[in-house]
């Protein structure tokens, strides 16, 4: 990454002058980035901050709306994002992977025009073992005339997003952002306390020799996924004619960050364990914001059967199969699904 002297604040002012963000959206992104700084500090303290381990009392785990045991840092990150965004006047409502329903901004605060959705801490299983985790966020417009939004107001396709981003808490804390005009990376200068633009216009190579998937689920996958990965594993001796490498961090933010940096395919396909739920990853908090960032960097994102950003959400916590990254490789994976479905009819 090349360093610049442009802070996130300066970048957003430039974007505002160019007419690509308005003052309310600029404030929203600033507030989210400040919350990410606070989460980064909490993650960095680890055991010293008493933030590791499961949330809950008396040995009883807290189970969230996803049916998953919450980590202390899941709860803390959620609270940091809620608290930071409640009173600024830039939002009409918020929704989080960790909350059952959306929350309108309380009456005592001014309301803005935007809806914010987030996965406060992605890759929770990696928190306790000191492997990168992150925050993912998506911004939608509040429908015209709605002053107190309900869940239904959030059910907009990914194409309606006005901004999306993630912050990965790894060896460096990096915020990656799109407002619909390219995907840009900002690295946290820990001493100065500000995010500095380090890559303007991230670009994902079209071709790749690297894929990311949880291989332990192989026997639970659908036939087209079995066929696709089977051919990748045959390498130079198979129909793809080249050897592939595999990486799986099990933090979507970290896996997608690698792909935005050097290319690759990220996949969490449908499997028989998660089929009843529709998939593992969440459309509104994970798949849509990441798909927007990946498309803005020249990549592609699909469910395997349709463009991710065109999926009509049926619920706030809807889950979907995910394929994203280098365009030629996403197209290849989609091709296996199309061929299978065509044969089945
Ligand atoms: O443990 P698995 O099945 O490999 O799943 C890993 C995936 O689950 C996730 O951790 C889900 O996100 P949360 O940690 O926010 O629930 C993704 O980040 C990651 O890609
Ligand atoms: Mg997640
Ligand atoms: Mg999470």
UniProtKB/TrEMBL annotation:
Keywords: Carbohydrate metabolism, Cytoplasm, Hydrolase, Magnesium, Metal-binding. It is an enzyme of class 3 (hydrolase). Substrate binds at residues 122-125, 214, 280. Signal peptide: none annotated. It is found in: Cytoplasm. Its main location: cytoplasm. Mg(2+) 2 binds at residues 119, 122, 286. It catalyses: beta-D-fructose 1,6-bisphosphate + H2O = beta-D-fructose 6-phosphate + phosphate. One of its GO terms (molecular function) is fructose 1,6-bisphosphate 1-phosphatase activity. Residues 7-199 form the Fructose-1-6-bisphosphatase class I N-terminal domain. Pathway: Carbohydrate biosynthesis. Homotetramer. This is Fructose-1,6-bisphosphatase class 1. It comes from Thermomonas beijingensis. The lineage of its organism: Bacteria, Pseudomonadati, Pseudomonadota, Gammaproteobacteria, Lysobacterales. The gene is fbp.
């Amino acid at each position: 990454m090349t360093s610049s002297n442009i802070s996130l604040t300066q970048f957003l002012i430039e974007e505002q002058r160019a007419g690509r963000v308005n003052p309310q959206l600029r404030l929203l992104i600033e507030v989210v980035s400040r919350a990410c700084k606070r989460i980064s500090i909490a993650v960095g303290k680890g055991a010293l901050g008493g933030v590791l381990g499961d949330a809950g009392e008396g040995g009883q785990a807290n189970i969230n709306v996803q049916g998953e045991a919450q980590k202390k840092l899941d709860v803390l990150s959620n609270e940091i994002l809620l608290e930071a965004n409640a009173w600024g006047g830039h939002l009409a409502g918020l929704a989080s992977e960790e909350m059952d329903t959306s929350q309108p901004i309380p009456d005592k605060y001014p309301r803005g025009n935007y809806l914010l959705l987030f996965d406060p801490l992605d890759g929770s299983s990696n928190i306790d073992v000191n492997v990168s985790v992150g925050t993912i966020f998506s911004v939608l417009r509040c429908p015209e005339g709605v002053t107190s939004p309900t869940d239904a107001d959030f059910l907009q396709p990914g194409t309606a997003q006005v901004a999306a981003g993630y912050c990965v808490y790894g060896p460096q804390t990096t915020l990656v952002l799109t407002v619909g005009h390219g995907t840009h990376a900002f690295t946290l200068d820990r001493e100065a306390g500000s995010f500095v633009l380090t890559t303007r216009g991230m670009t994902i190579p079209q071709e790749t020799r690297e894929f990311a998937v949880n291989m332990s689920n192989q026997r639970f996958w659908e036939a087209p996924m079995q066929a696709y990965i089977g051919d990748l594993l045959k390498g130079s001796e198979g129909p793809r004619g080249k050897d592939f490498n595999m990486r799986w961090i099990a933090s979507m933010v970290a896996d997608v960050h690698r792909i935005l940096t050097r290319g690759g395919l990220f996949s969490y396909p449908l499997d028989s364990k998660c089929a009843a739920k529709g998939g593992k990853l969440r459309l509104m908090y994970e798949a849509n914001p990441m798909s927007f960032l990946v498309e803005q960097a020249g990549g592609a994102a699909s469910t395997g059967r349709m463009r991710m950003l065109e999926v009509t959400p049926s619920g706030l916590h809807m889950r979907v199969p995910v394929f994203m990254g280098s365009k030629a490789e996403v197209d290849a994976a989609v091709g296996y699904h199309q061929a299978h479905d065509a044969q089945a009819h």
